[in-house]
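User: I'm putting together a small comparison set for a docking exercise, and I want a reference complex before I start. The sequence is below, and the ligand is NAP. Could you produce the 3D structure with the ligand included, as structure tokens?
Assistant: Of course. I'll restate your input first, then give the structure tokens for the complex.
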Amino acid sequence: MHAAVFRQHGSTDNIRWEAFPDPECGESDVVLRMHAAALNGFEPMIVFKTTALKTPLPMIVGGDGAGEVVATGSAVTGVSVGDRVSIYPMVPGEGMTGETRLGTCAELHRVPAANVIPIPDGLDYQAAASLPIAYGTALRMMHTRGRVKAGEKVLVLGAAGGVGTACVQLAKAAGAEVIACSSSAWKLERLRELGADHVVDTSTTDFRQWVWDNCGKPRMGQGGGVDMVVNYIGGDTWVDSLKVISPGGRMLVCGATAGYETANDCRYIWTYEISIVGSNGWTREDQAEMLRMAADGRIRPVIHDVRPMRETGAAVQVLADRDFFGKLVLVP
Ligand SMILES: NC(=O)c1ccc[n+]([C@@H]2O[C@H](COP(=O)([O-])OP(=O)(O)OC[C@H]3O[C@@H](n4cnc5c(N)ncnc54)[C@H](OP(=O)(O)O)[C@@H]3O)[C@@H](O)[C@H]2O)c1
């Protein structure tokens, strides 16, 4: 088969579409002919090795994917050749797809049968591939951990990415008022089209000042601010996030794209009784629910571009350059 492989870290030029051994199907596995893969914010982190993630090399790029079953192991029941399936990418004993186990930007992909989920009728492979990591993470963060409610004010930092566009849609679907932040005017336009009630250009506007001006400065017993900040940016955004959260509100955290050694001002946490709520991963059932939500139109997978897998390196560079809105999908 062919796959988008990198043999050393450091540059997206190291990602090459090349011949790679076909996967072997173990007795509990299935092999998929891939129809679509999708990229996430962690792909540049893995390729550039900007985090402590340890990736065995050579590695195939890609955490998300969807395909058609072309082989099943002798012990597999309930999954058949010809099934259209989405991959649940966290595999017990093997780790994360595209990080510690071979990724999805390949013509063929082996995965335990327990890690595939049927794609509902009416949902195409590209939409199915775009959902798992970003939309699954957003579902757990907004609902299971964040318990977003109708009428709440929700501010999403970095709203134009995969997790962000999913959070905006889920918060709107729950009846919340959404303030979406991005550093690019064209992405803010798209966020409005997606349903955001307010948009803040963080390249020209201080989001803390915007919230104080438009929602009021938080004061004990007097409200003000927003009920929830969704913050997977980290870096220098934590203190300003704490300063815009209403008394009793919360900050949801599932990552730290701009750095995990965040500054803090813990006075705000006790004074305003703010909760900092971590959220990590999502369940297989979350992923199945997102597939159903997309199939019946309750959410819309936002796909920026669909490219051939031989252009995976260029697509990862687009992610690194932040020149996209939503998801980047790759097809063989
Ligand atoms: N814990 C989990 O299970 C889990 C799962 C999935 C993702 N995550 C984390 O969630 C985060 C988002 O993932 P994603 O796939 O949605 O990523 P993504 O699609 O690459 O997100 C891009 C967004 O992040 C913003 N951004 C990127 N670099 C930035 C920087 N240096 N400073 C400020 N903003 C920056 C961009 O803002 P602009 O629009 O302003 O360019 C853009 O809106 C990542 O940190 C990822 O590791 C965690």
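The chain is about 25% helix and 25% strand. The mean pLDDT is 97.
User: Thanks, that's exactly what I needed.
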